Please model this.
Amino acid sequence: ARLLKALGVPGGQESGDDLHITMIFLGDDISMAQIQKAVKATYEVTKDTEPFKVHTDTLTCFPMREGAAECPIICKVESKELLKFRKKLAKAYDDADVKYSKTFKEYKPHITLAYNDVEIETAKIDPVDFYVNEIVLWCGSRGDEQLFVTFPLKSPCVKKKSCVEIETDLFRKVVKIAK
Model:
C-alpha cells in the first residue's frame, strides 16, 4: 500500500488502509440472510486456496460514467490466480444464491487509489508485486465500520510440513553453517 500511495495521483485519495482489490460487489445494504450465505460460500472457496501473487505496473482510470462527478484513478492488477479465484468465488455465490452486482460484464481487477473530476492518461509505473494472504468480506457500503469477516488463505505449510517443522529445519541449517 505504501508504494502505491507514494504515486501521488490527483483527486481525492483513498486511505492507505482502504486500498484493496474488489473481487465482487455485494451492494450497499446487505441483509443478514445474504451475509450468512456469503460467509459460508466464501469460506468454502478460501479454505483450500493458497496465497497468490498479484502484479501492477499501470496507472490509469476508468472512463467517466454518465452523470458521475468523478472517475476512479486505478492501478490495473494482473494475476491468473486472482482471475481463477474470482471465478470460483462468483460460482460459489451463484450456487448459494448470494446476490451481487453484475453491472460490469467483464471483471477488471484493480486497486482504486483516488477519485478525480477528470480522466488521466494511462502511464507505466515501477512494477509492484505482492501476495494476497487473506480475503475480507465487507458487509455494507461503509465496510470496516460495519460487519466484516476475514478469511485467511491456506498456509502452504499445511500440505507437507508444519511451519514449526520448516522453521526447525531452517534453524538446523543455520546452526550447521555457523559451525
Remarks:
- Helices lie at 2-5, 32-46, 80-95, 163-178.
